[in-house]
Write a structure and sequence with these properties.
The structure is a homodimer.
Chain A lengths: L4 H23 L2 E7 L5 H13 L5 E7 L4 H6 L6 E5 L11 H10 L7 E5 L16 E7 L6 H4 L1 H6 L2 E5 L11 H11 L4 E4 L8 H26 L1
Parallel strand pairs in A: 1-4, 1-5, 2-3, 2-4, 5-6, 6-7
């Protein structure tokens, strides 16, 4: 429902997101907003991604968005990274993570000691796409069992994100889904989108995804060092 | 975002839903609101369900909810049933079908000639659960690749629905998912929920689902005949 009063709330949300972004830039922490349908495999992907980044000596944290429950945070606990749980149910059950949750997480995290902050958004291909949180990259995870038509049916999500992980590649032999057709449909919606076919379960394809993340982080941290030199 | 003005809009929406329900009761058409994550298989399930109902001489129609595109309506075209497409994008991109779309569909459909109206809601496990449209049954489709935690993470959807179809049973051998655990989690959220493990692709399990639908329709139409006798 679109009603006039929402415009102000969106402006407030965007202003807070801009403040979040300034904090992330100053701290040199690269922030990725992970979005998908429920059950596309964001948490498994996140666990594998963090494990790979940790093996390179990189420091990660997670903001776990859920309407209710701490199930995903519990799944990430063995990694030993700081996790902040954002449950929207006590605040009206919002269908997406808001920039105020990100602000609150910043206060609780050792933000200056981090290389990466991952925001695992609420499982929803619609609403989270509408909200900028201050992140450097928006990434959509689409699992192959969801079929080939999702980019066309949820175009805002695919327009807003810079990258798409095609997850559950291990199930491909058992599905009537064509990866080339999926790529084609993604490119009709967003010609600039980078596509990574992966299986978070088996680890296939995660190497190029990690390189892409690292490229973004190094660019940010080079900028950050540059900024510090300018100041000194 | 919950803001006071929404209360009035929700009241309006509920009032219109009640009017829709009266129309359905008077016409003796049994209305099912199908909800799920994107890609859980609602359209395939709907096509198979309608095919099975048609083979019994029953008359069906569909209200196809999508943010944008007519892909699902096109997939249903071969069945030869009346399909009304509800795209929310021109009206602000709502993340769910609203009762005003159902009202508009009623105007376009041969409502007195129907036995069933299926509303295929927008793929989203969050927002559609909040809106009553005038339907007789709310049904959630959960595909097995989505995992066992969804009932606990999206409890409102599982509380609001009377039945859950566990779809893509054909993929079970390739997944780390336990149907008994899923049933257990569903029952912790909604002890009254009826669960149908099915594969819309292979047709497994659809018989008991059809019987459940038929039981509901026959009950409604018996009530309807009763009401007509009372009047005469």
């Amino acid at each position: 429902m679109r009603i006039p009063v929402l415009t102000n709330l969106l402006e407030e949300s965007d202003a807070l997101a801009a403040t979040n972004r300034q904090t992330f830039e100053a701290a040199g922490v690269f922030v990725v907003n992970l979005m998908s349908s429920p059950g596309a495999g964001k948490t498994t992907l996140l666990a594998k991604t963090i494990d790979l980044l940790q093996s390179r000596g990189l420091r990660c944290a997670v903001l776990e968005g859920d309407i209710t429950s701490t199930l995903d945070s519990e799944r990430l606990a063995p990694l030993g990274v700081p996790v902040v749980q954002a449950n929207t149910e006590p605040f009206g059950g919002d269908c997406h993570v808001g920039s105020h949750f990100v602000r609150a997480a910043i206060e609780q995290l050792p933000i200056h000691e981090l290389d990466y902050l991952f925001i695992e958004n609420i499982g929803n291909l619609v609403c989270p796409a509408e909200f900028y949180l201050g992140e450097h990259r928006k990434v959509v995870v689409l699992s192959l069992p969801e079929g080939e038509d999702k980019p066309v049916k949820y175009p805002l999500m695919f327009r807003e994100c810079q990258a798409c992980l095609l997850n559950k590649l291990d199930l491909l032999p058992y599905l009537d889904v064509s990866v080339p057709l999926l790529r084609e449909r993604i490119s009709t919606v967003n010609g600039d989108m980078i596509v990574f076919p992966v299986s978070a379960k088996t680890g296939i394809g995660l190497g190029t995804w990690i390189e892409w993340l690292e490229h973004g982080r190094q660019e940010l941290q080079a900028r950050h060092v540059g900024a510090r030199h300018d100041v000194s």
